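Readers of this paper often ask what the protein records in our data store actually look like. An entry from our holdings is shown next, in its original layout:
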Amino acid sequence: MNYLKDNYKYMHGFGNEFESEALEGALPIGRNTPRFAPYGLHIEQLNGTAFTVPRSAGNRRTWFYRIRPSVMHLPFEKYLSKNSSGGPNRLVTNFNDPNQLEVVPNQLKWTPFKIPKKSDGLEIDFVDGMSTICGA
């Protein structure tokens, strides 16, 4: 048989899950979270599937192999919208009063809730110990 030489490299993948790399050998072979990633890259997963979805539905996620972790971003700088109406930004997440809302995308963490002590004279059961976070 006579085969034609193909000068192109094709994306590997199966079931609409593909892989591509900027440097050859940057992706780990046989697993997605090795102990040490090639080129000293940081491994991160972005997951778009709720944890309640059955496995048969398939996970919608992607793996990133980055030079620096995504949490090493620069501090937030406020952006003033230049939309066509000249008014405030039209994208709102707080529908009570958008003028009181300031979204800060910096890396944040929750401080733990205060745990009441029996010496305070409070008996807290499961229901009384629940707290809401962000209205949920």
Notes: The mean pLDDT is 78. The beta strands are 12-14, 17-19, 42-47, 61-66. The longest strand covers residues 42-47.
